[in-house]
Predict the structure.
Amino acid sequence: MNEFIPLLDRRNRPLRDLRISVTDQCNFRCRYCMPEEIFGPDYKFLPKESLLTFEELTRLSGIFVSLGVEKIRITGGEPLMRRELPTLIRMIGDVQGVRDIALTTNGSLLARHAQALRDAGLKRVTVSLDSLDDERFQAMNGRGFPVERVLRGIEAAAEAGFLVKVNMVVQKGVNDEDILPMARYFREQGHILRFIEYMDVGNSNGWKLDQVVPSQDIVNRIHAEMPLEPLQPSAYGETAKRYRYVGDTAEIGLISSVTQAFCSTCTRARLSAEGKLYSCLFASEGTDLRSLLREGRSDDDIREAIRSFWNARDDRYSEIRLTNTPELRKRKVEMSHIGG
Ligand code: SAM
Ligand code: SF4
Ligand code: SF4
């Protein structure tokens, strides 16, 4: 039997995870991701024929698995805006070697789709929710969408048997007062809450360092009321640092891309909805896999293209973010294209 030789990049990081964006469209306009001034009525989203089809996505998933990918995360834009998403989940789940498929969603359409997603074999859902305060949440999502409906989506997912995690992007002066109410609520509900440091993704959110609440401050605030103890990472390349409430099994996670960069163990590749491959959230150029698919190239050709792409990878944006490297001034891909 052939021994599997892991595909490594220039910093010796294996390719293990693939994030697939299935649409660049979204029904929210979160200011930190798709501000209305840029993503307003005149913004040109991808035409339908540009999107990779389910067959193309399934074929690519198989090729990625043959190169070492074990986990696939479906994201967007808002992935539940892509029609028939459960069909895609089932198709990818049937690819031999896929160990885990997860979904990241804003939760707005989850109550409607949770059972079908579960029936299609999805096991894990991450729901993004930045506040339990209705007024603040409505302002943050830019569309006046009520908290209650996202909470209903989370409930429907839990009832359908999903392991649910909740992601909260924390911005100083915007929603940092929600840290404790969110921690209390999701501890009680038994869902893992993960705090994400606000990042300078894309080119349009006007990010400033002083709007970031460092993860250590978040831990300190929660610990003062509900004591926490750190947990060991459960896997190589885990993005979140985990803590458990003392005397309890409930835990939280912190994703600290700004204050504690984790580039040295970053195993993630990202595929945009139109089939461009990126190896970093902060990349400017993607490698066009759609052309290879549509030119009728063989699996081996596409595998070789991905192999050379990963071998050449040298990204470590978060480690050098606060330096004055000219590289950092390039135009970056938008988060809604590659999905975080
Ligand atoms: N629409 C889906 C959602 O919101 O969950 C999936 C795509 S969204 C781009 C994926 C994740 O990226 C969300 O959890 C979102 O909160 C996070 N995100 C978007 N912009 C961000 C930023 N500037 N800093 C940190 N996280 C961000
Ligand atoms: Fe949409 Fe998700 Fe971006 Fe918010 S974070 S605008 S929900 S893609
Ligand atoms: Fe990975 Fe790029 Fe994020 Fe570093 S900055 S962890 S290389 S995606």
